[in-house]
Hints:
Elements: H1 3-22, E1 27-32, H2 35-50, E2 55-60, H3 65-72, E3 78-82, E4 97-101, E5 111-114, E6 117-120, E7 125-129, H4 143-154, H5 162-171, H6 183-194, E8 198-204, H7 214-219, H8 235-242, E9 248-249, E10 252-253, H9 261-277, H10 282-288, E11 289-295, H11 309-320, H12 325-332, H13 338-364, E12 367-368, E13 372-376, H14 386-395, E14 404-411, E15 414-420, H15 423-427, H16 432-442, E16 446-449, E17 453-459, H17 463-480
Parallel strand pairs: 1-2, 1-3, 3-4, 4-7, 13-14
Antiparallel strand pairs: 5-6, 8-11, 9-10, 12-13, 14-15, 15-17, 16-17
The structure holds cytidine-5'-monophosphate (2 copies).
Amino acid sequence: MSFDEKAAAFINEAKRIAKVVASAERIYVFTHIDADGISSGSIAYETARRLSIPVEIKFLKKLDDEATRLIREKTDGLVWMNDLGSGYISRFTGMNMVIADHHQPEPETPIAVDNGRVVLAESTIHHLNAHLFGIEGSTEICSSTTSYFISRSVSRKNIDLAPIAIVGAVGDLQDSRQGKLTGMNRLVLEDAASEGLLQVVRDGRFYGKETRGMTKLLEYSVDPPIPGISNEPGSAERLLQSLRINYRSNGREMTWYEIGPEERRKVMSYIVERMIAERIPANEINSVVGESYLIVANGGGTNGMPKDAKEFATLLNACGRYEHYDVGMGICLGDREQSLVNALKLLENHRKNVANTIRLVREGGLEPMRHIQFFHVRDRAPDSIIGTIAGILMKSKDVDASRSIVGFAYSDGKVKVSARGNAELVSRGLNLSEAVRLAAEQVGGVGGGHSIAAGATIDVGKETEFLSSLDNAIEGQMSRGSGSVT
Ligand code: C5P
Ligand code: C5P
């Protein structure tokens, strides 16, 4: 089947599910706490509100027994799950439910084929998941874009929610492999751009173009790393001076957007020429110079509200990781007053936490095994940023890229696990979703996710056993070879 055919089948299913949503008498939205979860939850919530359907929203860190019980209590309306649920459908048999998710579905998901359309055999659970249509769930569509397809089918007016959906996709790093959004995400991007709500620009894909001074921007860039500059103190200053770029004004460093277009072009040509000279593969060059998405609607770029989708996503993560979900949702739904003030404070704190935790982990070092390397912060960092830390380290040039990184932190009497790989390992057979799920189950825990990024919760004291199961599972995957990023 061609991509267009798969996309059409997916959109048809979204249209069918939109009718289920529109006819609900009451909607309970459940969603995950990260940027994608907050964006998709906001889209679901706003869709219901615009239909004048009574709606409540609840954010979940994970789908554990307590969360399952809470969801199962909602029998007097439609439950709309976002960014969670596909891995655990059998827990919800008989419930009136929409699941808009992009995680690998439970292996035993009861699917049936109806007129060429893949549907869930369980008739009261309406499952919209790209995997069921042969579409890649970790790079071509996320939860916010999945929910957006339902929302847009409810009413064309909901097209104004497209930029929020894009923030979710960028928050899940779905643009990182090719330096741009592709697949189903691209269709959402086209909606947002055609309405003039968002601009697609070709530019350096560094994080912090609106908020970091020039030297920090370049030296701290890990996703993408800039050869010879990232993690090299003093290198950015030398580069800017050699290019005769004036990057200071009123005693402070200017940001990327403040230095002006000609200066930006000079920096980009230098970086690209250097990457070509160092024979860096084209896909890595694309991850440095690729697309950036600027949200021009709703006050983006004024009063501290980011317009860059990457920064918007980090702002949402800063809210979600510290349990201020309502603040994140407020921003998604356009509050540029109190929510924005609160979110910017949370962001400052988040950045400090991330920087301190990276320092802490670097000091302690990563413990290597055959296919993984791990760290344990115990209670010295919030469990909710462990995945961010593992992801940043995995992309750092000074860390062994041939072993996936596993991070542990204590979390409410349990251990939170986050594992991150890279595209190269996935192409050689790595599937963290499967391996982490398996290793977690071996020690009585739960886990899952994507091939490139997965997580789990296990009991305290089970870390060593978990690690050796995980290492063995990955050994098996790598010896079997070739995988795909899902
Ligand atoms: O919960 P969810 O699916 O939304 O999260 C996806 C996770 O995968 C994010 O934490 C994101 O940072 C991570 N990821 C990654 N590398 C990629 C793509 C996604 O670490 N190339
Ligand atoms: O929590 P963390 O960011 O490490 O999660 C990485 C990916 O694994 C996310 O997509 C998350 O939703 C997923 N995950 C999962 N089941 C778990 C824990 C995480 O599917 N128990």
